[in-house]
Amino acid sequence: MNRHTYSLVAAIALALTAAWSLSSCSSSSNPTNSGGPPPPPNAISIAGFAFNPASLTVKAGSKVTWTNNDNTTHTVTSDDGTFTSSGNLASGAVYQFAFSSAGTFHYHCTIHPTMTGTITVTP
């Protein structure tokens, strides 16, 4: 090979390396970008027979949104009766509750009582 061929091969290799480096920085390779809308603030996912996060702290007046991402039905029911999802939440269903006063509110799924969570409301 002559010097011109070596230069051409080196330039192509450099261009491919740069293209690969730039493609690895794109948002399409970012595992946290699901392509859908971002979750609402104060969101709790029901998945894997658990409330995620299991504990959440919000300010009084905040709305909490539970979304059932499991393939089975669940409920969101406070231990003291302060709030409850109206009936069973099928897969994909959403329940929201606005917490107007400060306190600690424990809740569970009435169908699967080992599923528990806590909402702490600050003034």
Structural overview:
This protein has 123 residues and is of the alpha/beta class. It has a domain at 43-122: Immunoglobulin-like (Sandwich). The chain has one helix and eight strands. It has one helix at residues 3-23; strands at 43-46, 51-52, 55-59, 63-68, 77-78, 94-98, 103-108, 116-122. The longest helix is centred in the N-terminal third of the chain and has 21 residues, at 3-23.
Oligomer class = single chain
The total count of strands amounts to: 8
Report the principal-axis shape. globular
Strand share of the residues? 25-35%
**The CATH topology of the domain at 43-122, please?**
Immunoglobulin-like
The assigned structural class equals alpha/beta
CATH class of the domain at 43-122: Mainly Beta
Helix % is 10-25%
- Residue windows where pLDDT falls under 50 for at least 5 positions: 13-33
Q: Can you give the mean pLDDT?
A: 81
By DSSP (H or I, 4+ residues per run), the number of helices equals 1
Q: Report the CATH architecture of the domain at 43-122.
A: Sandwich
CATH superfamily of the domain at 43-122: Cupredoxins -  blue copper proteins
| Biggest β-sheet: strands ordered side by side in the sheet | 2-1-4-6
Tell me the radius of gyration: 25 Å
Order of helices and strands: HEEEEEEEE
From the N-terminal CA to the C-terminal CA, the straight-line distance is: 77 Å
Biggest sheet overview: 4 strands, mixed
Signal peptide: 1-29
Keywords: Copper, Electron transport, Metal-binding, Periplasm, Signal, Transport
Binding site for Cu cation: 74, 109, 112, 115
Domain EfeO-type cupredoxin-like: 29-121
